[in-house]
């Protein structure tokens, strides 16, 4: 029976990676996992429970701490490297935009908004953890790392929209410039 839970998590993660988080639904996940909706609900009684575990799995597989603890590297470079994981060119940006449209568009549902909220919470936790490391080194400006994380994530979302509409062929320099500007707002 314990294999069902892991199968559900795996199926949900695969759907999220292949089609974006907005594609998650009880029916789709249960079908992919080869279980009934009641079995899925046994392990994940609420939609938020499912969203949280999937968000954790997706974030953990996509967002590493990289070299955030390597004090031989300037703090700005380490923070930019970590933030860059949020802003990937081409398909990643388009998938992000599709998710935002699903959450904020005319077809938005409470479930989709709950999924987005779960992703935002997880992103905030991860960025705050990175900033806590930098704060312990004295590299962070005064203030609450959680507030700094929120500012960085707002900038990352705005930067993603900017990049999505950019006509530049090579987005890498633009991504680095945007992320360095963001990092400068929270680092000493």
TrEMBL record:
DNA-binding region: 25-44
Gene3D superfamilies: Tetracycline Repressor, domain 2
Keyword Transcription in annotation: yes
The HTH tetR-type domain, residue ranges: 2-62
SUPFAM superfamilies in the cross-refs: Homeodomain-like (SSF46689), Tetracyclin repressor-like, C-terminal domain (SSF48498)
Top-rank taxon, per record: Bacteria
Entry keywords, A to Z: DNA-binding, Transcription, Transcription regulation
Keyword match Cell membrane: no
PANTHER family: HTH-TYPE TRANSCRIPTIONAL REGULATOR BETI (PTHR30055:SF234), HTH-TYPE TRANSCRIPTIONAL REGULATOR RUTR (PTHR30055)
Name listed for the protein in its UniProt record: HTH tetR-type domain-containing protein
């Amino acid at each position: 029976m314990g294999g069902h839970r892991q199968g559900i998590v795996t199926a949900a993660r695969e759907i999220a990676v292949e089609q974006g988080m907005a594609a998650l639904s009880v029916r789709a996940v249960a079908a992919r996992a080869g279980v009934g909706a009641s079995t899925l609900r046994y392990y994940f009684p609420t939609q938020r429970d499912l969203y949280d575990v999937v968000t954790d799995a997706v974030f953990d597989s996509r967002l590493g701490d990289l070299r955030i603890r390597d004090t031989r590297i300037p703090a700005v470079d380490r923070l930019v490297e970590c933030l860059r994981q949020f802003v990937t060119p081409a398909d990643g940006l388009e998938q992000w935009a599709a998710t935002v449209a699903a959450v904020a568009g005319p077809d938005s549902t409470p479930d989709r908004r709950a999924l987005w909220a779960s992703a935002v919470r997880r992103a905030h936790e991860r960025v705050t953890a990175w900033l806590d490391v930098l704060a312990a080194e004295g590299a962070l400006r005064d203030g609450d790392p959680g507030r700094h994380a929120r500012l960085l994530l707002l900038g990352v979302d705005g930067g993603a929209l900017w990049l999505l509409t950019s006509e530049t062929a090579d987005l890498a320099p633009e991504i680095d410039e945007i992320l360095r500007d963001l990092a400068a707002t929270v680092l000493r």
